[in-house]
What does this fold into?
Amino acid sequence: MTMDATSTLTRQVLRQQSRAWLGTGAVSEELPGTQFRPAFKDIATGKTYLARYADGTPAPMHLLDGLPDELVVRRDTAGHAAAIKGSIVAGFVRCGRFYSREAVAAQLACSSEHHIGLQPDAPDRRQSHTNEVNKGAMQCLAGH
It folds into this structure.
């Protein structure tokens, strides 16, 4: 599931993504013990943000409230982050590298079936970014 760079990422979109990826390993609840931590990446800047609660402590799932104010484009009446920049994608960090949901699902499927590393995502508008992430992930996994 990809996002248009002009849209925003909302809690509802995160829930939809989790439902769409359920059963693939690419949701937080399916990753205990894998060293994948929920995170966000700004594809415009390349900066990665670990998922955190509003108080800054690490969160075991994707939450918008722990993201820096400069990423928030809309807050609800209680002051909680309701939408963030459209250049932000949800994924996971492992070995200091960001993985898209597609990359996590592919890596888990391939490693359980063939004991090999990360495989490329399906082509989309972020293919060059995905290839760079996957290349780094292969190096990280090969070193462990």
